[in-house]
Amino acid sequence: MSEATAIRKSEATPTPQPGLQENLIEVRNLKMHFPVTEGIIIPKVVAHVKAVDGITFSIKKGETLGLVGESGCGKTTTGRCILQLEKPTAGDILYNGVNLNGLGNKEMSPYRQKIQVIFQDPYSSLNPRMKIREILSEPMRVHNIVPDSHARDKRVLELLNVVGLTPRFADRYPHEMSGGQRQRIGIARALAMNPEFIVCDEAVSALDVSIQAQVINLLEDLRDEFGLTYLFIAHDLSVVRHLCHRVAVMYLGKMVELADCDELFDNPMHPYTRALLDAVPIPDPTIESGRQHKIIKGEIPSPINPPSGCVFHPRCGLAVDGCSKAVPEFKELRPGHWVACTEV
Amino acid sequence: MTTLLEIEGLQTQFFTSAGVVKAVDGISYTVDQGETVAVVGESGCGKSVSALSILRLVADPPGKVVGGKIKFQGRDLLQLSDREMRDVRGNDIAMVFQEPMTSLNPVLTIGMQITETLQHHLGMSDEEANARAVELLGKVGISEPQRRLAQYPHHLSGGMRQRVMIAIALACEPKLIIADEPTTALDVTIQAQILELMKNLTREFGVALIVITHNLGVVARYADRVNVMYAGKIIETGTAADVYHNPKHPYTLALLKSVPRLDLPRQAKLDPVEGQPPDLARLGPGCPFRPRCRHAVERCARENPPLEQVVPGHYSACWEKSNLTSAGKPIS
């Protein structure tokens, strides 16, 4: 911890630094539809799960974009599409202007180094049969970043130090470590490739409260130290508010709201965003007893057969007749604040 | 208010190859009728084991309740025969587990799982039990209850399954429900629905509730009293207001300070609890929180502080409890 903490810059709020205006990632009209098949011998496509259904956003260099929503809203699939772990049904993913969708495996290889991922579950994303040393040096060997094995060993110790672990962890197996320590290894593995962009898919969700804060601080320190760009996928809104510059809210494969972090939390416009914020309990009994809770009814509908018009209308308190017919346009209602709702 | 449940010096240990793990190490608390008590703590602090011990559901071996008393309406549950204990479970004390995916039987219909309890404990006939099951499913907010009876758990979403679990828990009108992380696996809007449901139902039926959770927000919204656990012991207990506004144990204070909050201005940095929770098989003398504590003094290494009263109804196990302010100490 010491190394990273020492380098920490005292930044009051995570506002993007001026001058860094170029887009690192551009996602245009991304669609990911998974086929649903019936029949064992001759599978027949009977429907599609519209996991991601036409979303557009960009991430600037050095920025952290938060992607929030509930299970099944398509936030993880969006991350996997950017990582090219899924082949999108339609749409473009531009990395520094290069469309990743058109690339073959060989051409994709350099981008696989630059784009890394930290997974949610530190228990299942590390190979239980490998020592930490092997887990961290394998990607450097495969991508030939550090060809010499002695230099690789040295780099492993450096990486452990950067994520706040002592060198003795190099000879341990994942099962000998706690959840928080494993997640630090997951972070070190991503850093091994000298990435520019990291997809953090629920990277702190599985951790205990006291450990979560340690890992959030580490992610922040590393962002400042190495100038990283994050896509921070999470369902915990208070963590997203702490860490992100801009926040996008997804519901059932669509983006419903996108704004600067403070703007979104101070002035949420989409009824779904408001409901989400209202559902988060605040750790203060006095505030809680005075709060009026408007709990939204019902559950997320199936993405196989999403509701017509606005996908949120069956659960929405503001819905009018038109909402079930026309799909609301994703409009910029205030500078930088985009909302897909006709009733705000 | 009459006392419903009285736990005295409960000790549950696991006998493993790595040594004896004192998962629950002498905890005492009471639950009054109709009251909601929260047990808060992080993974491995013994909060779930303490709940399982109440219902004598700790797997033996390797686990064993080695000491203490669990008095429910005056009877010590630890002295009951297995047969008598079976009558208590479900009938007097019911449990809602964390994982609605794994705690329902996947090969039985929803109807069978609810009626089983009713027929076993209340000796209802098939028709009576079915009618009651429909009524219960309606109470927990499940649409078309009649049709649901014939469905299997995999037909339902996570939130729906948790509603079914609550319906089963309510089936025999128990006096106490123990909910172990009832909403941890659920989405935040569904969590709000389930918690509201439990709150209304416990109020309607006058059921006491023990909620076990790691979510400090959930506790603040729903609990009357709070027990904070660390390393198998209750280290602070009091009303929710006392514990949140005036924490008297450095661990509680550190936990409250480590979570980002939506209602406060953004902080530059979070203030985490440094270090790792201790290994319960290798606890030395002294306070188990000492290695992570910013307020530790020399005495903490030698003697483990007992749970003592700070103000009436508010107890803390810390030598420095009277020197603690809500601001706490910054990282040194």
Number of helices of chain A: 11
Give the strand order, joined by hyphens, for the main sheet of chain A: 6-7-8-3-9-10-12-11
Helix content estimate of chain A: 25-40%
Return the domain count of chain A.
Answer: 1
Task: Indicate the mean pLDDT of chain B.
Answer: 89
Give the full name of the CATH homologous superfamily of the largest domain in chain B. P-loop containing nucleotide triphosphate hydrolases
Report the strand count of chain A: 12
Helix content of chain B: 25-40%
How would the blueprint of this fold be written?
The complex is a heterodimer of chains A (344) and B (332).
Chain A: H1 2-7, E1 23-38, E2 44-60, E3 64-68, H2 75-82, E4 90-95, E5 98-99, H3 105-114, E6 115-118, H4 132-142, H5 149-162, H6 179-191, E7 197-201, H7 209-226, E8 229-234, H8 237-243, E9 246-251, E10 254-260, H9 261-266, H10 271-279, H11 285-290, E11 331-334, E12 337-339
Helix pairs in contact in A: 4-5, 6-7
Chain B: E1 3-16, E2 19-32, E3 36-40, H1 47-54, E4 63-72, E5 75-76, H2 82-88, E6 93-96, H3 110-122, H4 126-139, H5 145-148, H6 158-170, E7 176-180, H7 188-205, E8 208-213, H8 216-222, E9 225-230, E10 233-239, H9 240-245, H10 250-258, E11 308-311, E12 314-316
Parallel strand pairs in B: 3-8, 3-9, 6-7, 7-8
Antiparallel strand pairs in B: 1-2, 1-4, 4-5, 9-10, 10-12, 11-12
Helix pairs in contact in B: 3-4, 4-6, 6-7
